[in-house]
User: Fold this.
Amino acid sequence: LARQKFVTAQIGELLILPWGSLLLMGTIAIISPQTLTPEIAILGNLVAAGSGLIVLIIQTRKSVPPQLKSATPVYSSRAWLVAAFPMLIVSGMQVVNQRVGILMVGDMLGAEEAGIYAVANGGVMFVALIFFAVNQPLAPVIARLFAERKMDRLQNVLVRAARISLMAAVPVGLLIIVFATPFLRLYGEEFPVGRVPMIIMTIGYVITMGFGSVSAALTMTGFERMAAVGIGVSVVLNIGLNLLLIPRFGMTGAAWALATGQVSSAVLMTIFTFRFLKINNTATGRTL
Assistant:
């Protein structure tokens, strides 16, 4: 990403891993369906992941300029650790935020409900991929413009990215809402009961898109701790609302908990961004 090779950087994770795994499983299912077991599926996923990693390593070596290979390395281990720890916390809490609802639904309602909710949650990831696609290449651009103190350009980039994300997320979200039932029915006749939770989570993701890349804006400008606070609030709200809503509303309560936590986190980090960077990076912000 630092070399501005955004597409190449994502080939392993977004192309080789999912499609390689799907190709392997499809081939096995056609040639020898009786051998397709969960263990084989896990092995196929590992093979696809390893292949993606190898391709990424090869591409990384090719993209490194000769001058870099002969340069004398300079280490700032303490500074790196101080900056990296909040990023680790942010990444970890994002994973927790995404999965805790599934675990709590399973604990309170049972494995069947958790399976349905997990599929609904996974379907919403089509919207989340838009955020990932915009956020990944944006991160080094944010860092560079902030280092150069080009704050007007930084706001322009962030606002336009938020608008692009929102414009892409709205039609995808509408498709998910319209085709939620047929999509869920692919997994079994009992799965369409996850339609309402899926719609709620989709709306939450689409609204979040309108706030832009607030987490990246804070993380890439030295305010990693504020990003960690924002994500932490989302996790706490998510868990707390799950405890309150799941017993009464089931999967729908878990969906409301996730959506509320995400939107609240986005609002809080938007406030932090405006306070510390003097930037309104939402889709409603103005370009300078």
About this structure: The first helix runs from residue 6 to 31.
